[in-house]
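Batch manifest, entry 17 of 40.
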Amino acid sequence: MKTNRLIAILAITAVITSCNNHKKDKHYQHADNTKVNYGYPADSTSINKWIAANDFNAMYKHSWNVWKHLTTPVSGGVLRYQTWSSPKQILHKLNNPSANAAPEIEFNKPKQFGHAKAKQSDFDDTNIVEVVAYNPSAEKFAIDNKIFYMSTLKAMQTGEYSQIPEFPHDAITVKPVYKIITQNSLNENGIFTMSAWHGPQYQDQGYPEKDWVSCIHVDTKNKGNNDNGRIDYDCSKITTENTYFVDDFINFSISKQQSDEYNQEIISGLKSDLKNKSITQAEYDNQLKHLKTSEGDTAILVGMHVGTKEIKRWVWQTFWWSPNPDTPSIPSSDDIASARSGIGLSKQARHYAMDIAYSMIIPAQPYVGGVNEGELVIGFNPYLESGFGTDVFDAKTSYVYNNGSKVKTNLGTMSNCMSCHMSAAVNTAVSVNSKVSSPPYVGDTYLSYKDSIFQKRLMLDFAWSIQSNIDTLK
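Output type: structure tokens
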């Protein structure tokens, strides 16, 4: 079985490692003759055995089961993950425990864009928004431990290396990423053209969507499905093969409140870019015209980061919409796609590719005292990290030794979910203008719980969503 999970990139070249074929049924027969259930949540012992044995088939199956768990309809046909609370809603519940309802979930520009100090115009041609959410277990933990309050975090930072309490075993945090189809983004036939991922390029400046020159077209007027089509590499030649439909995506209609709040954020960001002269007045006018939303516009899911606290360093999987989900592009693979067999995903959920990061490198290293040497484990989402260049990541930390050679990983297309999220930390003793001192982003690398970047900082149990939602007045 060929797999793209082991990707060692030397001289910007991907090396695809082979492993043995495994029977892809509900249970996989291990050498110890025990059967493993791939359902969610799995016990940490089973998952850690998969990691130690490089049992990728088990990992793939398990992460597809996580995807099924998230995308299963619950009451009223709403998908399970869509019923969960955002950090803002959780803060509202903390501050208003007797209130009947929390405010509606709002759209935000992805927080890592701001963390990376990227100007809005670098990404707003894609009209991307995020809605971070915690499942009920994670929400209860956040409320019980008041983890969004600065006073709480200050009390938890007590020594040279400090950590918040760990989330419970069944906690999940998700970062769904949407594009909004506005009326001004359609052509005269109701076609919405969007960038479609076709695989990475390893450029110092990153590889953002506007550089892909690979598109698909979404017919918003007609019903239909295109289960496994093609990409338009000209971005203007509309055919039946590269035309898809709204129902090929997980989607919903946005509310007036979501539209109004998003428009305010868009205008604020564009005004800032205009003031900083990073865009012209003509670019400002054009982007505002195409990006401004209205009630009833359609939000289509293009990607989602998912962390499940089934092991100490969380299980990491990321999903993105693919025009050809049966044969997806790197960082996914045909093997990952074929592992969907028997999971029972909906037609919409099957249209997404997946990548996983159950470890930072292979072999997986201990919590403390490991070595940063082995095979790279690349885990990124094209619609979130591909645009990040060498100016975003910490070059001093972002590397892995592979067969004695130092491989730089300070690119979005060389990053790893586990490495990145482990670096989520703050120094609560340093608070200037309502900001806290956090480590820089890192690419794929091994991090120890005693790494120097955590010295005199409070580790946030892999949750950047805490760092970006701290209430400094509480």
